[in-house]
Ig-like domain-containing protein
Amino acid sequence: MMVLPEMTIGHTAYKTGSDIILSCSAQSKPAVSYKWMFNGAFLNEQSPQLSLQSTRENQTGSYACLAHNNVTLRFATLTTMIKIVEPISAVALNSDGKPPILDQSFTLRCEVTGPVDYIHWLMNSQLISLNNRTIFSTDNKTMVINPIQFSDRGEYICEAFNAVSNLTSMTYKLVVNFGPERPAVTSPDIAMTGQSVTFNCSASSQPLSQFSWFFNGSQVASGSVYETGPLTLASHGEYTCVAFNNITGRNSTVSKMLTVVAPVTMSIVKVIGAQPILNEKFSLTCETAGTVYSIHWMRNGWPLYADNRTDFSMNNNTLTFNSVQHSDNGDYQCSAYNPLSNMTSPEYRLTVNYGPERPVITSPDIAMTGHSVTFNCSASSQPLSQFSWFFNGSQVATGSVYKTSPLTLASLGEYTCVAFNNITGRNSTVSKMLTVIDPVTMATVKVIGAQPIADYMFTLTCETAGSIYSIHWMRNGWPLYADNRTDFSMNNNTLTFNSVQHSDNGDYQCSAYNPLSNMTSPDYRLTVNYGPDMPIITGPALGETGHSVIFNCSASSQPLSQFSWFFNGSQVASDSVYETGPLTLASHGEYTCVAFNNITGRNSTVSKMLTVVAPVTMSIVKVIGAQPILNEKFSLTCETAGTVYSIHWMRNGWPLYADNRKHFSMNNNTLTFNSVQHSDNGDYQCSAYNPLSNMTSPEYRLTVNYGPERPVITSPDIAMTGHSVTFNCSASS
């Protein structure tokens, strides 16, 4: 028999106070008996199960089950180790009492209540491993960071483990203390008397630093901000900020120099010595009040710099022109500066005294008798010059303006202006010649010799009065120049046409000029006499008996022609228009117009033929011979009355033309059908024409006669006795 013992247990490690049942079983026949042992000693238990109640740590040890077969005398043993462990009840993470300071050693301890198998350290939820700055004690309960850095800031925990429990500490927030580093002071470097200044001191530090302020070695304030009272010049000096960290025990110091200045309160430009005179030395000074660091000069708002004629004193407060010029004129200012204030002087207007330079006379060079002339004299000068006027050596006026009395030809001569500057003691003189002339008082165009006749010589002259310098001719308002048919006399007062033409017609004027006046003549209308040219008759070439005809005769001619009318050699009227009486066929013939020019003595003739016709008074279509029968010849004629030039035929309102079954007579008055057909049925008309009248006949209805063709009987083919039958007979005809 084989004994296979089995012992089942839940765990190998248990918390103190746990209830544990150990079970043991073995396959055997007959059934085995059981015994239990603890650490080699038999227990008073012979059942397959061993019950351990409210276990304590002293129950930790080796438990064995013995199975024995009383028949086979065999036994089997199975052993297991049971561990009863106290659970971890508390875990605390603490420093060694020394705060974490940058670049120093720092220690954390993991304090555990209860048995510990192992400990884990975590920073910001990440497992911490050993490195060159982090060291753990043998039991892992102590972690040393040496030296501590900013990168070590974070949240730290430790986790303690044993066989039956684990526990995590509260978070330890590690903040690295440092500083203070070198403070920074924010404040102005310079300030004005009477103002207050605020100093701000800051320093990078953990925890925040405490601040103290010192001025020239004496403490004046506590706190990061120090505001002075109103400044005086005695407030100038060194301001020191001391930052102190009561955790690191360190301090750091920085100083700031404050410069105190008085504001600029005055700036004005003044002249040193004599007034400015052209080409002489001249100086300006800038008077100021207040603390002045620098002075700048401006001319007309633009900065001024030294050059070969302009110098500045060492401190820039004096400006000297070695040889003052007109180009130096302008508005001068000086600006006084310190770093906190400045002042610009009012403008000093520099005007350089000079002259007079050579005067300039403005006046006409020429004037008309009876008029006054005003002479203006000017000379560039500072201050303004005084003026005197002389005519032909004798003084006539004082002042820059001289107006003459009404001029005569004796007023011609030399007028002199003398300019005098009572500051420079200089004078300058200039003269002007005045020419006096008479005005143009007449200009008119007149004919010399005969009136203008086409192809003959013709001459116009320009009569004038007054002083004439030149004469110009115009035609229709446009300047006129000599050409191969037109000549001017030497002084331009005569215009000659060698062969006057129609193209010379127009309005002619002459203009007479002198430098002060001119006159243009009234228009002279030039109209060249000619003709008559070949007359033109307007009127009909055809006339109708009983009607009158009007003939108009015209001929190009200057002056207008006189007209006469002749019919078949006999004079019938004297006028450009001739109206006949009611025409008869005897009125047919040649009508002649004669045009006569009583200036040129010429005449010209033209004739016109008049044809007289009688009106069309009748047009009718009639049948010639037999009535129209199908397939036989049939003729229609157009009977007319009056003068007929042409006849036209129509069928149903449309023009009718000859074809292989129809033809017309020579004069178109007869229409013949060679074999008349049903298709020729319709309404026929003829129209008779002459150039002045026409007439269309009434309609003639053509219906072609034919038949009868084979009749057709309509009736029943069969009938009943006692009934009547109706027969219908029809034939196309």
Remarks:
- The CA atoms of residues 26 and 665 lie 159 Å apart.
